[in-house]
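User: I'm curious whether this sequence folds into something compact or stays loose and floppy. Could you predict its structure so I can see for myself?
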Amino acid sequence: MTASLGRRVAAEALGTGLLVAVVVGSGIQATELSHDVGVQLLANSLATVFGLGVLITLFGPVSGAHFNPAVTLAVWFAGRRTGTGPSLREVAAYVPAQIAGAIGGAVLADAMFGAPLVRFSGHDRSAGHLLLGEVVATGALILLVLGLERAGRASLAPVAVASYIGAAYWFTSSTSFANPAVTVGRAFTDTFAGIAPASVTPFVGAQLVGAVLGLAAVAVVYGRHAPTRADGIAVPHGASAPGPGLQPEAELASP
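Assistant: Here's the prediction. I'll summarize afterward.
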């Protein structure tokens, strides 16, 4: 049974908020337990991998578990002709919910560790090589997200997407934000996972460029058109799958 738009929007807001709470909270915990930056990043990335996998599994059947405006826009664009993606009305509801949830998640993490609830980050991330890292991280995420759907492997999203994000923490110079909503949320915490407000716009711009390149890569590898629901690969958000092993469309996310 398809979830109402209100329930799907609530799932996106709550899921994105919990994701940011995991990212920021584990970063704070890591810096309190160790002064070794490598150990801090390892702890932060492992917590994010486990948390993201759980959240996709939990919220995927309701909203698709995007937690990411870049993913929402990419899934809409790829499925706009065949009706396999969200509608523009859903996009317009999802994106603000994701951003609000991300900000709330950062505030919650700060509150749990006794930090100021809102203190804008001073962590400058405006260097060109970091922006390139965001282009790569987001482009590969979109290729994974849509590739799983095109290949009929959306049920693997909790493991595949979480594993990719864990790897991207380490192989990208930016530590793979790959998510405009999470980027905005992380500006509200002056902690290990924070990003200076002045760096947010360039980061988001790089992420959107990466999303476009990811869509182009999907078209090259899988063809230009998304499968129809009749192909048995995708079903509406929150609907029951039509056959064994099929999952709701695009159980997909990133920090």
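Summary: DSSP finds eight helices and no strands in the chain. The helical segments are 5-33, 37-63, 69-79, 88-112, 128-150, 157-171, 180-186, 197-222.
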